[in-house]
Amino acid sequence: MMTPEMLVKLALEAREHAYTPYSGFAVGAALLCADGTVYQGCNIENAAFGPTICAERVAVFKAVYDGKRDFAGLAVAGGRAGEAVTGLFPPCGVCRQVLREFCGLDFPLYLAKENGAFETHSLGELLPFSFSNADMS
Ligand code: THU
Question: Which of the residues 7, 74, 99, 131 has the least number of beta carbons within 10 Å of its own beta carbon?
Fold first, then answer.
């Protein structure tokens, strides 16, 4: 069974795939699906800056492409490329909204700190009073 600790390790591993020639900031994500599979993502930057995509969305979009829409948790790790993670890294607002499309307010995010440690925060904590498909019915 995939534990949060293991998921954080996979997010740290995913950082090594990051393409960050502009910011030098490498982010990795590991998304656990309800069926037990894991999708990893990294940030991928672009010379035009705007097309840059975050690690979290790469993981979500890979999973959705494969037909997965039920998610159990997401680990995220960020820090200077080539260096170990030292502090907590909060996912950006766009990624929080993308998660909200598929995840409830109790969805857990495991935010990596130094030495494999992490903090757990719910999506509801990170994105309070959020807009979702439920608001369109
Ligand atoms: N980044 C992510 O991958 N995830 C986030 O939630 C915020 C920021 C990336 C984008 C860019 O490549 C670098 O971090 C600096 O903003």
Answer: 131
